[in-house]
Amino acid sequence: MTVRVREISSMADIRRFIDLPWLIYKGDPNWVPPLKSDILETITGRTNPLFKCGSHAVFLAEEEGRVVGRVMTAIDEQLNAVRGRGWGYFSLFESVNDPAVASALLGTCEEWLRQRGARVSRGPVSPDNGDDYRGLLIEGFDSPPVLMNSYNPKYYADLIESCGYKGDGNDRLAYYYEVATATQEDTVKTIEYARSRWGFRVDRADFKNVDRELQDLKTIIDRSMPEWPDMIPPTMEELRLMAKKILPLADPDFILIARTLEGQPIGFLLGMPDYNQVLKHLNGRLSPFGWAKFLYLKRKIDGLRIFVLFVTPEYRKKAVSHAMFLEVFRAAKRKGYRWAEGSTIVESNGPMNLDAVGAGGRLYKKYRTYEKPLT
User: Fold this and answer.
1) How far is CA 353 from CA 172, 263, 360, in A?
2) Cβ atoms of 140 and 366 closer than 8 Å
3) pLDDT tens digits for 108-120?
4) Is 269 exposed, middle or buried (0-12, 13-18, 19+ CB in 10 A)?
5) Which parts of the chain are beta strand (E)?
6) Residues paired with residue 339 on neighbouring β-strands, in sequence order
7) pLDDT tens digits for 48-83?
8) DSSP character string of 273-298
9) pTM of this prediction?
10) Domains in the chain, please, with CATH?
């Protein structure tokens, strides 16, 4: 049968794009259905900062009128300008287990990217340039994904590699923590000594002064973010969009800012309850009954994801990251949480991986971004 790939052109196409995973993951107990409204906003650009950074396109693959695959592709001109790259991306890749479908989808992306001057195709990446759905899951298929992390069939790696893609050599890692045992007494004493020795404190986020907190966060990120090849520090506009999206669901006990005793921001930790435990039961919709179920199941969440942790260079190796871990685990234990995931940390970030293990983390999932030269 011939695989036909075409750019979506109607609301009916958008619905077919959004609905495809319900076919791909049918019967998979670990799949968590995304909210269909979120995917709609992402692919139409309503809440997607990536679309402001360059061109994009969204494609469907069909066989005899049946949707068998999908993909989104984009170019981040802002990142390319800052990093001196010629990269294009693919995201939201889904396919039946057929190399011909994957080849048709990714081949279409590659041609689209070549026509716009891209020299490399990379993916899968976040569909909105955030920390969500970044990379392909390659290890850790025995449990559901934690909030905003990737999940996919095992055969996706074979499909993507069959199209000539290779890992970029810097996998992303996720660590699992048992909240009850994450902080030992000797660690607590060391952290308390460091707070006194180096003169810093750890504050809960103040949701009544969001703009001030975002300014401090911007300061920390600008001074702390390594020169990762595929990320640059977000703008204030992007931070405000992020805050608007997550604050209605956030818990200030899991969003921490470390400051000197004089108030200078030196570290930041972002954690969120694992709302995937709720989404799993909503089947992609927040209808009036869905909201009632959401509010009921929200109280039963027993895990969280720690997304982001930054410490400014002059305060590294001074237990600032450990102090933030201590406070988030204390809050989690107080609220009845049993576990946490710290993710994702790039493999090459040795100090951060050591901190994760030092805080009691166990490596349990890996994600991979693939790339392919287009010249």
Assistant:
1) 10, 28, 11
2) yes
3) 999 999 999 999 9
4) buried
5) 4-7, 56-63, 66-74, 87-95, 120-123, 136-139, 166-167, 172-178, 200-204, 255-260, 265-273, 303-311, 339-346, 362-368, 370-373
6) 178, 303
7) 666 677 688 999 999 998 999 999 999 888 777 777
8) E-THHHHTTTTT---HHHHHHHHHHH
9) 0.90
10) 4-172 (3.40.630.30), 175-366 (3.40.630.30)
